[in-house]
Write a structure and sequence with these properties.
Mean pLDDT: 76
Number of strands: 2
Number of helices: 5
Low-confidence stretches: 111-118
Order of helices and strands: HHEEHHH
Radius of gyration: 15 Å
Strand content: 5-15%
Shape: globular
Length: about 130
């Protein structure tokens, strides 16, 4: 319903869904995954599976992808390692959890949560 509404009226729909079904998860055009308030993935649902696999968190066959994301982010150190991997992947400093010149390490992410700049994209990238 939301996808049809968005296409018919040429609008962007931003939503937060806790534990969507596999069908709902695959219906998303784009995902923005967060851990500890930091971005760990931005892209397509299908691309997210490859991204997790590249970082050692392959989704078992037949397993709900959304549940696998939750399980992966809750695994010991996985959230922080995916934050570090994302920060290494992106070149735009605004998309990194730890900006250039920031002395905080990835181990400080929980402590720095209220004082460090988080996801702060330009106006245009918020709606693309």
């Amino acid at each position: 319903m939301l996808k049809d509404l968005a296409k018919r009226h040429n609008k962007t729909v931003i939503t937060s869904i806790h534990q969507p079904s596999s069908a709902v998860f695959r219906s998303f055009d784009m995902l923005l995954m967060l851990a500890y308030g930091c971005m760990v993935y931005h892209g397509t649902p299908h691309g997210s599976l490859q991204y997790l696999k590249e970082h050692g968190y392959e989704c078992p066959p037949g397993y709900n992808i959304a549940d696998h994301w939750i399980d992966s982010l809750e695994a010991d150190g996985a959230g922080k390692s995916l934050i570090a991997a994302w920060d290494k992947k992106v070149s735009d400093n605004d998309f990194k959890c730890r900006g250039e010149g920031n002395e905080a390490s990835i181990d400080d992410v929980e402590i720095a949560e209220t004082t460090t700049k988080k996801y702060n994209p330009s106006w245009l990238t918020k709606f693309v």
